[in-house]
Design brief:
Elements: E1 6-10, H1 14-25, E2 30-34, H2 37-47, E3 51-55, H3 63-70, E4 78-82, H4 87-96, E5 100-103, H5 108-123, E6 130-133, E7 136-139, E8 144-147, E9 150-152, H6 156-167, E10 173-174, H7 175-182, H8 191-205, E11 215-218, E12 222-225
Parallel strand pairs: 1-2, 1-3, 3-4, 4-5
Antiparallel strand pairs: 6-7, 7-8, 8-9, 10-12, 11-12
Length: 228
């Protein structure tokens, strides 16, 4: 009997459901399936899934509103699966509360990797004082950052930026989310703030700032600190 994580799949396309069902059950996941937004709203509270895979183009309601409704009562990771590849669609989904976004078509390995990152992040203690990413260590209690054991001196803005990314490692954070959290709600449209300070931060924590491995850019959308 499978005892893996429970995943709620909200997808109306039969072929895509079969593909995901075969992929996930082969890796031990337990799947609950919904084909409409209404069905998802009924199944989610009863099954208490550990992760939601959500198509945006549902027949009765847009997936963005499903995301917003889920976020009213749960912090379960939501990975959006959609044929909409435009940057604005990705930004809207992430701003609505999704944790990640995969554009169709996608491969099994990429889907499974994104799911592992989302589940691992959700399982972390919310106040974990020390976060480690390869050679980089962030101590949230002492507000210190070390790379290969050597302390890295960051400005207050650089530290807040790094800490926010680290606390949401593996998740794509939009420019609006970063600006609101690090600079305040009134800075939501000052996207150059993020670009300038992130460039300085990369110089201090990346081995090769021109080819960043820790903080990666999601073009037109935002940034992701690698969770693996």
């Amino acid at each position: 009997m499978n005892a893996g994580p429970v995943v709620l799949l909200v997808e109306d396309e039969p072929e895509m459901r079969r593909f995901i069902r075969a992929s996930l059950t082969a890796h031990g996941y337990r799947l609950v399936e919904a084909t409409t937004a209404k069905e998802a709203g009924l199944l989610a509270p009863g099954h208490n899934p550990e992760l939601v895979l959500l198509d945006l183009g549902l027949p009765d309601e847009d997936g963005l509103s499903v995301t917003a409704k889920l976020r009213e009562w749960t912090r379960v990771p939501i990975i959006v699966l959609s044929a909409r590849g435009r940057e604005e669609d990705k930004v809207q989904a992430l701003d609505a509360g999704a944790d990640d976004y995969l554009t169709k078509p996608f491969g099994v390995n990429e889907l499974l990797a994104r799911m592992r990152v989302a589940l691992r992040h959700a399982a972390k203690a919310p106040e974990e004082p020390r976060l480690t990413f390869g050679e980089l260590t962030i101590d949230l209690e002492s507000r210190t950052v070390k790379r290969s054991g050597e302390e890295v001196h960051l400005t207050p803005i650089e530290y807040r930026l790094l800490a926010y990314l680290a606390q949401h490692a593996g998740k794509v954070l939009t420019h609006r989310q970063i600006l609101s959290e690090v600079w305040g709600p009134g800075s939501a449209h000052q996207t150059h703030y993020v670009r300038v300070h992130l460039a300085e931060l990369r110089k201090k924590i990346e081995l090769d700032p021109s080819r960043p491995k820790l903080i990666v850019t999601e073009p037109g959308v935002g940034y992701r600190l690698r969770g693996e």
